[in-house]
Amino acid sequence: MMQRIRQGIIHAFWMVAMAALIGAVFNMVRTAGIPMVGDWSPKAVTEIHAGDLEVIGLGDAVELFEKGNALFIDAREPGDFSGGHITGAVNIPVEKAAEHLDEVRAMLKTGKTLIAYCHDVNCPLGADLVKDLRNQGIGPIKVMPEGWVGWMDKGYPYE
Amino acid sequence: MDANPVQVILSAARVVLGALFFYAGAIKIVDPAAFALAVYNYHILPAWLVNMTAIILPWVEVGAGICLVLGLWIPGGALIVSTLLLVFTVALGFNLSRGLDIACGCFSTSATAEKITWWYLLRDSSLMAASFMVLFGDQGRYSLERALRGRLVRKP
User: Fold this and answer.
1) Domain boundaries, chain B
2) In 3D, which of B8, B131, B56 has the Cα closest to residue A28?
3) Is A32 on the interface with B (CB under 8 A)?
């Protein structure tokens, strides 16, 4: 038994070494290759999540909010939403987007700025929701990447 | 070589596990950027290790998968698959328990499909059990290694 494990460890070592070599070389020559050490800063992560969507920072968002010109959409799960959310926000989880199309259309008609958000910069659900709605021809909706956590950290109004 | 049912089952488990890992690795190789994001979303590895993992791990899965399907270096392949499943199960359980709503990144690199659930934990644990049985019990029936050895022995 010990012999088998020892043999396994030696083989596994060579297999991992070979995989590392093949993976690194293949990654270098292919067009879809990625850098060995990636940029995972909040800015880069937002770029990945939001892509070409229109992004709005906390400062601009709260300014619109205070003037009564912002409508927030909380893309988190209902459980998270009921635990606290930006004052006046409506809850539309991504997978329920189809059930809220008319509601979002009505929100857009008010002429106010629609802002979707999720938990924090690492959560893609706000951006996912906006993309989903955009694919159905509904927009424009902005994304606030800092999300619920960023809003709370600033001490802005919530309920 | 009489048909020992236990060995037949272990060989079947080995081939199925190998095929699963080959498939899981291959689809991650297709889109490294998407898989890197899936790895990042687990929030377990330090940022500098995320891309390296996304580049290398799929090839480890593919390599171990090939070994298990063909029956070459079975203890090595089974040890890798068992260790990976253990790591995946722990990572999955950790994120489920802290309530992270993320994609599994297991058999798909899509960020929206395949959200992690407790069912995935059960799946990974079952696969892990099978993998450990192969690691300790598989005698290499229906394996390329045995076929090759048999030929060598038969040669005058």
Assistant:
1) 5-154
2) B56
3) yes
